[in-house]
Amino acid sequence: MQAVILAAGEGKRLRPLTRSRPKAMIPVGNIPVMDYVISSLKTCGIRDIIVVVGYRKEQVIRHLNTLDMGVTVAVQEKPLGTAHALLQAKEYIKDRFLVLPGDNFINSASIARIMDKRNAILVKEHPYPSNFGVVTTRKGFVTNIVEKPAQSPSFTISTGVFSLDMEFFETLRENDMTDAIGTFLESGKKIRAVPADDWQDAIYPWDLLQMNQYLLRSVQAEKSGEVSEHCTIQGQVRIGNGSRISPLTSITGPVVIGPECEIGPYACIKPYSSIGARVRIDPFTLVENSILMDDSEIGSHCRVRDSVIGEGARLDDHVTMVTASPLMEIQGEQIRGRYGAILGEEVRAGPFTLLEGAIVGNNAKIRGNSRIHSTIAYEDGSLVV
Q: Residue 305's CB: how many other CB atoms inside 10 A?
């Protein structure tokens, strides 16, 4: 069986984190989300994989070339929707195939449930269905599917995982998969609704923290690099090659620390923290339930909680993040999230800065002794005084 992974989208609602990478390449647990999809397919014995790329396609292709298996790459030149992306892979498809989003986590048990079904969709109950394609069913078959309805007719949503065969292309006229599935149903075809075993998506930046929590629960302990005998490590902690853990540091898993990191003395790394490659954390700093991307630097006496720190960001000493639940507008929608801070790439925060439920754009500079309130989201390149 073949699989088509759709990894062409930008993930606009995840800004500022997707300025220089597509959503499928966002690291969670220090691994791009797309890699979890590929791993689940391999576990199910599916190795004939086509990846459709588009936004920042060179970055995705470079990453695919580092994998221990070959994949076929198809290119969507313009962002015209998920069904249009699938159409770019048609020439490589021989018979029955799976369609999967490259920016969601899907486990192998869910794939095993649907891979032997002809014309099926993987569904899941969700407390906020209006963010997704909402599915109504009868006797195990789909009766209707509608994308992001203002008033949802059910709590059952499409995970974006489909099992289809070549006849699907005969009715494919629309650019979006939800609409294309609707047309397929109207043509008289039946689509089975298969409940997913487990599936995770990140619609907004703070959703990455929940996905990170889930994925870190299965981390395997591994201690490479230089780990002081005078530090305290409890639970499942993975430490990458070349990393240096200083004396009197406390790490409580599940935690992942990438290669070539420097964790200063008296630092405290608490559960559900993913620390990327070449990250520096200075003494007396606390990190908890957060994602620190590659090459970020955290000064001394900082408090990083419930936050996502973009690649290359630098926080001076005594920067504190306070978890809040701000109401904001994203892509025309009023959304309330819960997080400490979401910082884009190369953000610079001066000493004694307080970030309270703040979203700060890429390359922004924050002067010291500032308080960034939860109702403010700064654009790329901002200077905050």
A: 18
pTM over 0.85: yes
Hey, CA dihedral for 156, 158, 162, 166, is it positive or negative? positive
> Of 2.40.160.40, 1.10.10.10, 2.60.40.1180, 2.160.10.10, which CATH number belongs to 218-384?
2.160.10.10
Q: Which two tokens stand for residue 70?
A: 């070959």
**Residue the block writes with tokens 């269905």:** 129
CATH 3.90.550.10 fits 2-203, yes or no: yes
**Per-residue pLDDT for the chain (385 aa), expressed as one digit of tens each?**
899 999 998 888 888 999 888 999 999 999 999 999 999 999 999 999 999 999 999 999 999 999 888 899 999 998 888 999 999 999 999 989 999 999 999 999 999 999 999 899 999 988 777 777 888 888 889 888 888 777 777 788 889 899 999 988 888 887 888 888 888 888 888 999 999 988 988 888 999 999 999 999 989 999 888 998 899 999 999 999 999 999 999 999 899 999 999 999 999 999 999 999 999 999 999 999 999 999 999 999 999 999 999 999 999 999 999 999 887 777 667 778 899 999 999 999 999 999 999 999 899 999 888 888 865 556 777 777 6
Burial category of 47 from C-beta neighbours within 10 Å (exposed 0-12, middle 13-18, buried 19 and up): middle
Omega cis (within 30) before 326 = no
Q: Are 323 and 340 in contact (CB under 8 A)?
A: yes
CA–CA separation, 268 vs 232, rounded Å? 10
Identify the residue whose tokens are 């989201």: 377
From the list 78, 133, 102, 106, the residue with the least C-alpha distance to 22 is 102
What is the dihedral sign for C-alpha 23, 124, 160, 93? positive
Domain ranges of the chain: 2-203, 218-384
